[in-house]
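Two quick folds needed for the group meeting slides. Do the first one here.
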Amino acid sequence: MGEFWPVRDVLAYLAGSWRVRRSVRDLASGDEGEFTGTTGFGPLDGGGLLHRESGTFVWQGVARPAERTLRFLPGMAPGTADVRFADSRPFHDLDLTAGHWVADHPCSADLYRGEFTAYDADRWRTVWRVRGPAKDLLLTTDYTREP
């Protein structure tokens, strides 16, 4: 993909519907999977966005429905977001004012390191590297705005 695309207000940028394609690689075993579906960022009572993702995850040839919900709240600085799980536990912060952001999320003995990149008004990507005693994963997700 190309250069970074600065985003003045991440919540305004994300609002709407996106097509999602995620590759999942287990770097230890070599296994690979893929998620395809949609993500919607809709208004959240009290401010922010409710992120709802749904689709199909294929792992080792088996397709299963998959979904998740996150809350994107206004961040500490203008134009940024405080990303939380559906139950309001903290996940990570997000600041795309430079078009690129790296965030860490420790989870028990694992560390999730996310790299977020905006490419233009209609395309962005996340790359999560997950490392821990029993995990060695690379998750790359491409988002394309739905017309």
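Then this one, please, same format:
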Amino acid sequence: MNARLTLFGNRTANKVINSLASTGGAVSATGLPVATQELVKIRASQINGCGFCLDMHSKEAAAAGEDTTRLHLVAAWREATVFTDAERAALELTEQGTRIADASGGVTDEAWADAAKHYDEEQLIGLVSLIATINAFNRLNVMTQQPAGSYRVGQFS
């Protein structure tokens, strides 16, 4: 697969990507667990079919010590026993926030209330911001057909 546009190395694309990436520091400062952040990025990327982000975030999660069983079961999190209630709430919010156009009214009150049971206001802001940001990255990569498979851990650090 060849990319439609070269995002890496293009001055304008770098400005956009750096702006989006800067949200990562703000999200991390909320205390949202790193494992949860990676699970959210992986789940949104699965839904959106973003191979580039799946490659990146599954490798980053594994390098950070995430269990491979959990990584393999993200797509089937509802049936899996390896996720905490808090992670399940984050994954549900991720799915509903990613599929926002598919549901009238967007995220349900139930999904929001469940997430609010597990995360404080700062973490919820971080979680919502993370979901929005990974969806933006997914769309950039899918529209421009960025190839997956060659990401190296820490490549963009």
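Slide caption for protein two: The radius of gyration is 15 Å.
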